[in-house]
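Record Transmembrane protein 234-like protein, 113 aa.
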Amino acid sequence: MAVSVESLLWLTLVGCLWGGTNPFLRKGTVGMKVVEGSNMLVRLWNEVYSLLKNWKYMVPFLLNQSGSIVYFVTLQNTEMSLAVPIANSLTFVFTAISGWFLSESIPNKRKTN
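=>
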């Protein structure tokens, strides 16, 4: 069971699209106001509508979702038992790197929340 170079490159792209957009998704929701509505359905619609209007959220969201499409296509030619840990671990790496570029704190095993 080996991963082809082509599959590894596609999985790296997936990790980059998923992980690279995570800090931007967090940043895109900063300062959003609490939505109001008369019932849960109206509040849900107002929340979705406010996110759709927010380009700082939508651009990273669409890039993130394109990573899911690439992942789905890549799974057709790659063993799932290898694709899942590769994509997920690269997602973590790219999240840390892009967070560092945005001046977020680097994950630290000694740091407790």
